[in-house]
Specification:
By secondary structure, this protein is of the alpha+beta class.
Length: 690
């Protein structure tokens, strides 16, 4: 797999050789055997089951009949793309007890392939090169400080014989950067820091000295953020690497930069020379971000006609709710139009590239601000797709606002999200409940016309956020949903043509490939991740292990029957006071909810603690305080909880178990009404959009 072959990937439509199919990252397949006239004949050809339920977010690659897929805990599989037979498995053995360090689940979004190697970034910050034939490690390098809570969930990229990788961990007090390594040896070639460090240590270059002038206070003590946790895209024609930079940490600017400032290069697109990492240009989308917006969402390269002239553009629909179009040569901002409801800004001054911020949107202690989009974004990491045939961008969209209220006294804590606004326990539960009632969240697949700067069509869903997107030359758009279905739409009109029950939520984006003249469509299936874990999206079917599911015309493979959801009898309540129970709720919210869900309502990709078998209640304290099942991903918490604290948490979980039983035994009518209501809303929104 040479650089030239990757650059010419469009000439090999049967393969899917890099994260976005080609270096343009359009996620468009030129294959037409599966199309709008026969897609209803798709059936399951094969499926491959992983051993975990943590959630699948990856984009598989297919090269010469072999599929390379990354799954939970950064495990990589090589599969026969015709049959799904496993050829090899590589487990980097990420320490499961370190799960508390990772924001949003033990997920991985994909691998890279170059020459005879497969590259993966691991949750614990390593970059590993794997022999593509044997599945054995060729080299590995630690890309992060192991003493800090860095992580890698994004897919590596290849550029001129170098592997490019970023990292995550903003909420735990880290400083962002992106690194390039020699793909053959693993030796570091260059590193680009996205925000300045401690001035007392000296700045790496003049660029960081300049950026430091846009910060105030002692931001380096809380990390500052700016991690490059997802999108990086390479333009071989210009030899430019475009880097999407993340949010500030803490999220609240007043807590990291108390006297204001733009805080470069947070929430920015930065262009650098791919060979040296030398800075070329940048655009900061949100100056002094304070709402957890990021520019880490997928960037797409294309040539479009703009105001009567051909332009080489970079397009992005990130969290902030505006659809940005840049001249990718110069960095000029050509357009920034809202694709969802936006209240933090009224638009952009294209002459300066700066947003026109609305008054009153920066929250302060004792005040709240209702902001659209929420920190979940109008569009998050779930990949979008661009079709050069229709000229439309297909965006997995969430329209949702939340109220922000600053913490009165912020204190950095290394084992907890550091946000700078109230988002803990009952506060967060109340905030989200009120936001849902006030804003009626809407999740939909939007077809956006970049030239007309407006929506062409949309397809609504009752739940969200939903999975990534694939567009094809067969006039099709594929997307999976969080409630366990896989859909195909007409790319030009949005008409739904086909649906398959895949039994589990879909977050990942599909791919299309061809082997021996047969066209296949593959999607990784398995819900989980930050939003799903924290909010505890509930579905009637139990969560099953993650799967790679592949479809082709005329196939008829069946998935195994789903077992009936089990609800063990709740144990006897513990004898504690109301105040102790309240403290248990607070401690649960602070240390447990990030994985097991607010109010102990889990999406099931990690255990729902309300439904524990008796053996786990009998061993609750050893599990929590001694780490007796740390190898399964359950860390020990004796550094932040004592025996009484753990007992109070246990009492709270038992209380929630009893409440859940009472609700289940009395709410069958309510559940039916709720499901009818969601269906009605979806139908009404679809009708209004037509």
């Amino acid at each position: 797999m040479s650089d030239q072959r990757l650059a010419d990937a469009a000439a090999e439509p049967g393969n899917w050789m890099s994260h976005g199919n080609t270096w343009r990252e359009q996620r468009f397949s030129p294959l037409t055997a599966i199309n709008d006239s026969n897609v209803d004949q798709l059936g399951i050809s094969w499926f491959f089951e992983t051993p975990f339920t943590n959630g699948l977010q990856g984009t598989p690659l297919v090269v010469d009949g072999v599929m390379y897929a990354s799954a939970e805990w950064s495990v990589v599989y090589a599969l026969d793309a015709r049959t799904g037979e496993m050829l090899w498995k590589y487990d980097p053995r990420v320490p499961r007890e370190t799960a508390y360090k990772y924001c949003c689940g033990a997920v991985n979004r994909g691998v890279a392939v170059w020459q005879d190697k497969v590259y993966v970034g691991t949750l614990d910050g390593r970059l590993i090169a794997i022999d593509a034939v044997s599945g054995l490690a060729a080299w590995e390098t630690q890309t992060t400080d192991i003493n800090k809570a860095y992580s890698i969930t994004g897919a590596p990229r290849i550029a001129n014989g170098k592997v490019i990788i970023g990292n995550g961990g903003s909420e735990y007090g880290v400083r962002g950067y992106v690194s390039a390594y020699d793909a053959a040896t693993g030796e570091q070639a260059w590193r680009f820091y996205t925000i300045p460090g401690n001035p007392a240590d000296g700045f790496e270059n003049e660029l960081m000295a300049m950026a430091a002038k846009t910060w105030t206070g002692e931001w380096w003590k809380v990390g500052g953020g700016g991690t490059v946790w997802d999108s990086i895209v390479y333009d071989p024609e210009l030899n430019i690497l475009y880097i999407g930079v993340g949010n500030g940490a803490p999220h609240n600017r007043d807590m990291r930069s108390p006297d204001g400032g733009d805080n470069l290069f947070l929430t920015s697109i930065v262009a650098v020379n791919a060979d040296s990492g030398e800075y070329l240009w940048h655009h900061q989308q949100v100056e002094g971000d304070t709402w957890d917006y990021t520019a880490t969402q997928q960037m797409v390269l294309a040539e479009i006609e703009w105001q009567g002239l051909p332009r080489k553009v970079l397009m992005q629909a990130p969290k902030a709710g505006f659809f940005y179009i840049y001249d990718r040569v110069t960095g000029e901002l050509l357009s920034a139009e809202p694709y969802v409801k936006v209240t933090w800004a009224s638009g952009y001054d294209l002459s300066t590239g700066r947003p026109i911020e609305n008054p009153g949107v920066r929250y302060a202690p004792g005040t709240t601000s209702m902001i659209f989009p929420s920190g979940l974004g109008g569009h998050n990491w779930h990949p979008m797709a661009y079709s050069p045939d229709t000229g439309l961008m297909y965006i997995p969209t969430l329209e949702f606002g939340t109220e922000f209220e600053a913490e009165e006294a912020f204190e950095f804590t290394p084992r907890h999200w550091n946000l700078g606004y109230k988002a803990d326990g009952a506060d967060l539960n109340q905030q989200l409940t009120q936001a849902i009632l006030k804003t009626m969240p809407q999740s939909f697949l939007m077809a956006w016309d970049p030239v007309k700067q407006q929506a062409a069509w949309r397809a609504d869903y009752p739940y969200g956020p939903n999975g990534g997107v694939l567009a094809t030359a067969g006039n099709l758009v594929f997307q999976g949903s969080v409630d366990g279905y896989f859909y195909a739409y007409r790319a030009d009109t949005g008409e739904r043509l086909w649906r398959a029950d895949v039994q589990n939520g879909v977050m990942a984006a599909p791919i299309s490939y061809q082997v021996d003249g047969e066209n296949y469509v593959t999607v990784m299936v398995g819900r989980g991740g930050g939003f799903s874990l924290m909010i505890g999206i509930q579905h009637e079917r139990p969560v099953i292990n993650g799967r790679v599911i592949t479809f082709k015309l005329g196939a008829s493979e069946s998935l195994p029957a789903i077992p009936k959801k089990q609800f063990p009898e709740p144990p006897t309540r513990l004898d504690i006071s109301a105040e102790e129970l309240k403290r248990g709720h607070h401690l649960y919210s602070r240390y447990c909810a990030r994985c097991h869900g607010m109010d102990a309502v889990s999406d099931g990709s990690v255990p729902d603690l309300r439904h524990l078998d008796p053996v786990w209640h009998e061993n609750f304290l050893p599990v929590v305080l001694e780490g007796t099942i740390k190898n399964a991903g359950m860390p020990r918490f004796d550094d932040v909880l004592d025996k009484d604290d753990a007992r109070f948490v246990h009492a709270y979980i038992i209380e929630r178990s009893h409440e859940d039983k009472a609700l289940r035994e009395s709410s069958s009518v309510w559940l039916a009404v709720k499901e009818w209501f969601y269906t009605l809303v979806a139908k009404v929104m679809t009708w209004l959009s037509q």
